[in-house]
């Protein structure tokens, strides 16, 4: 990874300061505790006593997580731009790298921001699932962050596995390399960006579907 000290301002902005993982961690933590905290704090019964269905309650909480992800993305974009102004100069409207073709720094930053928002939604849906399953906030956060950080370890092993079993290119940990793909670096299995995004949305639907199913069936009296 290129250090920020050797980057020009536009290059730093185009990469969003290479700190997208921090934004993903923050969103995953919020998604992990937003439901689990209701159970561990004993407020879930009061919440369910309101004239709303469990699906409506869970949907509203996930919308809160998405809103937090939007705010976090905006803060990330603005922070990266402001910090880039302190680095060596350059034109933000000229192509920023060969890997990104004709994209300038602003276009590259927005593209990366969009792909990172999709990844944050994936991490949020995973964390949301664990938050709906377990009663402990700490356990929900720990498991969710474990999934998030284990991805980088498994990514190193994926090319070997995919070379032997082509279907493994569709497993979640390979698709989580979306940011790398939109930055011009092909991922294992040679999937196009649109294929990666489509695959991630399938996983999001699965995780959210499981979350709603489990939450609707969960016995609050035993929680």
TrEMBL record:
GO CC annotations, alphabetized: plasma membrane
Regions crossing the membrane: 12-37, 58-86, 106-131, 138-162, 192-215
Domain of life: Bacteria
Sorted UniProt keywords: Membrane, Transmembrane, Transmembrane helix
GO molecular function: ABC-type transporter activity
Entry-linked Pfam families: ABC2_membrane_2
Entry protein name: ABC transporter permease
Species this protein is from: Listeria fleischmannii FSL S10-1203
